[in-house]
Amino acid sequence: MMYVGAAILILAGISGFAVVHTRDVTCQVLALGFYGLVTALMFFYFQAPDVALSQITVGAVALPLMIMLAISRIRFRESRLAERQKNARPPQPGGERE
Predict the structure, then answer these.
(1) Which pLDDT score is estimated for 31?
(2) Which of 11, 29, 53, 56 is the most exposed place for a label (fewest CB within 10 A)?
(3) What is the distance between the terminal CA atoms of the chain, rounded to a whole angstrom?
């Protein structure tokens, strides 16, 4: 049984390393969700099932979901701003005087 605990800790270390060193934001959020699940598994294995349930709710579901929603909102605003700038009328020559 000691090997199972060591394997879970090694998996947590590898998944944490993957979260930090992933460059693509979407892949990083997926790695963060996986890290949350591994952390919950670690809590459950080390006899903290109440903390494991909280970790599944927050670390594996809610946090990645909030991050993805924020990223999609930022991308939507950027595309809307770019569209407004593209459709803006160019200034008329001689329209503004100093």
Answers:
(1) 92
(2) 53
(3) 81
